[in-house]
Design goal:
The protein is mainly alpha-helical. Helix content is 70%, strand content 0%.
Length: 106
């Protein structure tokens, strides 16, 4: 079975959303992405490299817990790392402004 090749983030994002339908998982993604942004800016402001070392822990740890324990699926990061990273920030923004809901109606 051949895997789908996405040509753009706009084409990929609906696929990404389909893999993120569990409420707890969405919360964990939101928290993880928020911590990534906060950690990055804090490290930049205070010129502390330790903050940058923590980025993968927040950026991968929270979402992967969501996937493995709540979504029960494999993170899209393994197949599409760049699109997934961008989509993490898109869903964070969409959840923040109400365009997406933490609770997905099935």
């Amino acid at each position: 079975m051949s895997e789908k090749k996405f040509k753009s983030l706009k084409e990929f994002y609906p696929f990404y959303l389909s893999k993120h339908t569990n409420t707890t998982s969405r919360i964990l993604h939101f928290v993880g992405t928020g911590l990534v942004a906060l950690t990055f800016f804090t490290g930049f402001l205070f010129h502390q490299s330790l903050f940058f070392i923590a980025l993968p822990l927040f950026g991968c740890g929270f979402p992967w817990i969501g996937h493995f324990f709540f979504e029960k699926n494999k993170p899209t990061f393994f197949q599409y790392p760049i699109y997934t990273l961008a989509s993490d920030f898109l869903i964070f923004y969409d959840l923040l402004n109400g365009k997406q809901s933490f609770v997905v109606k099935k």
